[in-house]
Amino acid sequence: MIDLHIHTNYSDGTSSVSDVLKIAQNKKLEYISITDHDNCNAYKELENPETRELFSGKIINGVELKCCIEDGRRIEILAYGFDMEKLNDWLIQFYKDKTSPQREIKYFDQLYKTCISKKIKVRNRTDLDWKDTSEAYYILYDEIKKYPENKEKVPEDLWNDFNVFTRKYCGLKEYDFFIDKSKDYPSVAEVVDVIKECNGLSFVAHPFQYKNIENVPEFLEETIKKYKVDGLECYYSKFTKEQTQYLLDLCKEKGLYTSGGSDYHGTVKPDVKIGTGIDNSLNIDVNSIAWLN
Q1: Which of 8, 44, 135, 221 has its CA 20 to 30 A from that of 18?
Q2: What structural domains does the chain harbor?
Q3: 8 Å CB contact between 266 and 15
Q4: pTM attached to this predicted model
């Protein structure tokens, strides 16, 4: 069994590298990949022999990169098996200012002003518990949900699903909460190109999770043709069997690699478990991922 999509507290997860390795070891996973957002800092810890010995399986270099398609909508590309030193130099150069607290404060202020203009109840800006390392989405969404009366002021799907809030309402131009991130993140083309330059493989992460993508098959056809990605994340905690099968068939048709993982985040997504996903929905066989062998 494998898990090639795991986050630690080096990005938006809550588990330490050591905790992740212990869980993976306890579940007897054969392969894992730590895929924190926009950084490879977890792998510095893995240089310590005592830390690395916590897991007897194989660890594939991984990272999940936030990037934008042409109209400003954000997606993620997973990278695997790359030259760590070379890619890390690019990550530090490109993302060091893009992932700063100033960016999140900018996003937060925009979302906050939208709440005020739509008469959505929130506390005074100065009273909010702001932490520089927090993502603006989490802070604002939690604030909106604190007040039951706001339920009547926002769409039902926004109220019920954080992912819908971030992907759909903050990700599509027709909505008031839209944030254009094209200036803050690299393009898909840039990301795929640099992964290739670093001898890695690029995969479109969790294609059916993008609420800002209305027609996933059309989006994938265009992305595969235009950007020459190496593969798709076919196995994922929240995919239906039909969605997984569609992606597997598409990879076979297009000659692409397949990948998969839980998208583990620790207590942020308590129902998602390393290796097994939600309610044992994953259990990915190592033999189903050809490029690992």
Answers
A1: 135
A2: 2-98+185-292 (3.20.20.140), 101-169 (no CATH)
A3: yes
A4: 0.83
